[in-house]
Every structure is written in C-alpha cells, then in structure tokens.
C-alpha cells in the first residue's frame, strides 16, 4: 500500500508521507513554510493549519477530517489555555492518517497585508534569515561535564536540526544566567543567510520568545524610508521616512562627493549624519509599532552607490569621475553594531549588491521588486532623480544604465521650482483657447473633476511649482500651442494673451501673478530648456538600451521613486520622457527599491536571486557610447524628432 498523499495549499506542493507523520514535518520536507517557534511543543500556536474537505479529483485525493489525527493531550491543553479558531489545528501535533489537502491559512492573510502596504502585486513568501527556536536544555549533570552552551547546542540540533552552530561572542558570558533564568527553557535567535554558511546564535532569551523584527531601509539622497517588519509573521508593523541630513552638505550627489574631496573630515561627517538619521528613524518606527528596538535582529539596506558608500564609511571620491569605480559592488553581510546601528547587539545587516558605478543597490532593489527578468514582456524600469537609473529587459536579457538628468525634474534649476511641499503647485491644466491656467496646490483643499481643477488663484501662500507639475505645465504649454516642437515659447501670442510676457529676447508663460508677498510664478524659456535637457537625457538613455536590446518599442513601463508616483504617465509621454507604450501599461510603483529591500529581508532566497541577477545584468556606460549624443539631440524635440508616438496620438 502506498503512503497517504499530502497536498499543501496555496503552494500546491505535495508528497507522500507515512501514517503518523506530523503535518509540520511533512511541510518542512516539502519546503512549505509553516511557522514554529516552540519547536513542536504545542505552546506557541504559530503552526496552525486547516484541512480542506472534499474530493479533489485532479489530485486523486479524498481529504477529510478523518484523515488527520484527533487532537492529542498537548493540543487540547493549548486549545484550553490559548484558544484555537474553529477548524484550525496545530500542525506540529496533528499527524497524517490518510490523504490530505492542507491549507496554510496564516500565510495568505499575512501576505495580503504585506502586499497591500508594499504596493506590490506579489506575495512575499517568508523564509527569513533569522528564526526563533525554543528548546528545553538538559540540566547539568556532574557525570557528564558538558558545558551549558554545549548542551544548548545539542538541543538546538536535536529539535531544530541546526548543525555546527556558532554563537555571537557577546552572548557567551550570558548563557549560564539566561538558561537558569528560563529554568532551562530558552529561545535562541538563529541567523543563517546562506545554506552553505554556518548558522549563528545571535540572541538568547529565557523562556519562549515570540517576537523578532527586522528593518528594510532605502537610503536616498533626499529621503530615507524604512519598514519595520515582524520576521515571524511577515507583517509590516510600521513604515516611515525622514529627510537625509546630508542635504546640508550638498543638495545632490555630486556636490556631496565634492564636499568629501574638499573637506578632510567630510566623509566622516556625512557617514555620521546618515547613520544617526537611520538610528533616529529606527526609533520612530519602533515607537509607532510599539516594538523594542532590541528586538530587531536583521536589517536590509539599499541605496544609490554614493549613499551606499557613505553609509558604510567608504570614501565615494572614485565614484565622482570615470571610470566610476565602486569600492565594493557585491552584497555585504556583517554585524549591525559594526557600523553603529543601534538595534539588538547580535543583529545582522545585509546590503543588496550595486549594479554599476551609477546604478546602485537601490536599482537592484527595484529590479528585484519589479522583476523584469521574471517575465517575457520587455519591461522598462526607471527611477528618476538627479540621476535616472534605467533598467530594460525580460527573461532573456537585462541591460542597465544611468543618465545624468540633473535636478530639473526635482524642481531645482527651474525659476519657480521647489520641492514638493505645502504651497507648491502640483497639477496644472491650460485652456488651449484662452491660455488661462488652473492648478492644484499641495495643502490647499480644492475640488477636481474630469475636466481639471477648480481655479485656484484665490489660494494664498503659493510658493512655487514642484517637479511633477513642471512636467505637466511644459506638456500643457506644448498641447496649448504655447511652445513649438523645438520648445520655443511663441512670442506672437503675447498680442492676444496677457499670459505670454516678454522676458528680454525670449518669452515666458505667466502661471500665477504673485500677491501679498508671494513670488510671481512664471515658466521661462530657460525653464523649458532645462526640462528638455533633462528629458532628453532620460530618453536618450532609454533609447540606447532599446538599441542594445534590438527593440523598437517596450511592452510595459514602471516608474519607481517618489517622482514617478506623482507624475502623470500621459504627460511624461507627451513630453517624450518615456518611449511610446500603452498608457495602461505605464505604472508608478512607488518605492520599489524599498519593496526590494523588504523582499530580501523576508526571504533570504530573494538575496540569492538578486545577487545572481545583478551578475547577469549588462551595464552600459552612456558616456562611452558613440551614438548617445545623437540620441540626445533627437530627444530634445517634443516629444521626439525621429521617433513616432502612435499610441499617444491614439
Ligand atoms: Fe509551536 Fe506548533 S510549533 S505550537
């Protein structure tokens, strides 16, 4: 007779197991992730499952509650003390008695939360590098003089299968005290990143400890964003952000590199500033989530190359000039306290690999999150900042480049530009007949409808135009015929509209007449030029990668980063920032780099996945490509001199 068949849902993994096998063991054997903290003692309740009843013809399984063992003494005790929801069983106690279809319900519930918060459409299967393992250690025996730590290791191997365990040195003097305090029952936090590496005891607690957290952090030049996540449930406990204090050393990346070059203590000062900000942010997410920062055992970081180097204490000078040599490109793994991150003393830290000198671990995070290499469609992934990081590819091949878009898209170098903040104009519509504008202002309550926005000239405290609105206003100017394909403001319109005003030898568009001490907001010919230069740099970078891939069009476009979240894809295409594509296929994915960090935190397999993928990505250095200049010149025109945009006109 063959052994009963056990099928796990929703993964669909299945296998045959002898009658009497604990369901948890069956899950482990098949690589189905079912949580367990108490090691099958029926005390933690983490291993709950449900039996699906019915006749599953396709799998030739008849599954019913008769095919699972009745509740034993331990499970009954757990149910009495802690309660067990209707239909739920403890998989560590329940055993296989016949064919079974098992639902692993916790995963689906928890992952749904992760998915929602991370604005990602994938399920992050959990396989964290840190596990909490409860054991009951034998009491000392004069006849067997094995040390307390050694007997702890024996039990961790016996109950949890951990072989060749190492222990964080700071724990060694504490072992005896903790074992006695827990009356020989202790929970060990075990870290293992790679299957081939030796596992480490990184934390030890008296009794059963049911909590372990991790952080996933994206260090951007302007903003640092962080998720605090339960490593046991996968739930995002809190998310927050703060501005990067390095801004005081220089707004953009290159000015920060110059700061390092000009000031002997520059590197140190910036490293200190960013680490302090990270520690403050950890405090903030912990407070929000009601978590003790010492319960954080794993930290994953992504950052652009210069932030990555400064955070790690590496001088970024080499990244400031060709050949843009990274001090280290591979993923790194070490103790968090070594770079002064204030979490549990035994916590580990992992950084994703950098792709190239200008395409950092943040781009690797975004690549992991969006996964162009996981699909057949040709995907364009762009993260727009002062440098655009561009990834293009599919299952066959992925290429990457960066392009110097400059700070125009962030509102810098634009006469009325400002950061997105209250008082900034964020949306603009221009009536093509009257040339009168309507706009939305951040922090000002206004209605908007299909046609556009309430006229908001009445609003007060309007201080500037933010990056996304600059794209819109230039695109609207083009659509209203105020600027030509070459980007020249048409001065002849000044005769019919007071909105077109002369400005020396060129003309400007008057967006808002300042009042009560507010600045007057205009879009000048220089502003239009700055946007043209920035968009041409982005488009030329994209086009170069399309040529490398030998494709005329892309199937799908993902905008990562804050800028991408606010920009309207239609206007991005009107201006020719991005190539022609179905508008439905253009999506803003928010902080995709942060989502990638989250994936690497919750599942160590994702670390291997992106490490491998980054090795395969072909890096293109735009500065060395002979036809980049021509592509750039063609891309100065709106939307482009040579490339058609058929989907846009449709
Ligand atoms: Fe802890 Fe089952 S593993 S209750």
In short:
29% of the residues lie in helices and 23% in strands.
Describe the 3D structure.
With 650 residues, the protein is of the alpha/beta class. It folds into 5 domains: 5-103, Roll (Ubiquitin-like (UB roll)), CATH 3.10.20; 130-206, Roll (Ubiquitin-like (UB roll)); 215-351, Domain of unknown function (DUF4445) (Nucleotidyltransferase, domain 5), CATH 3.30.420.480; 362-407 and 531-649, 2-Layer Sandwich (Nucleotidyltransferase, domain 5); 416-523, no CATH class. Helices cover 29% and strands 23% of the residues. It is built from 17 helices and 31 strands. The strands form 8 sheets. It has a 6-stranded mixed β-sheet with strand order 14-13-12-15-17-16, with helices on both faces. Strands 30-29-18-19-20-31 form a 6-stranded mixed β-sheet, with helices on both faces. A hairpin with a 4-residue loop joins strand 4 (54-56) and strand 5. Helix 9 packs across helix 14 (592-602) and helix 9 packs across helix 15 (604-616). The N and C termini lie far apart (65 Å). Bound molecules: FE2/S2 (inorganic) cluster. FE2/S2 (inorganic) cluster is lined by residues 36-38, 40, 42-47, 90, 92.
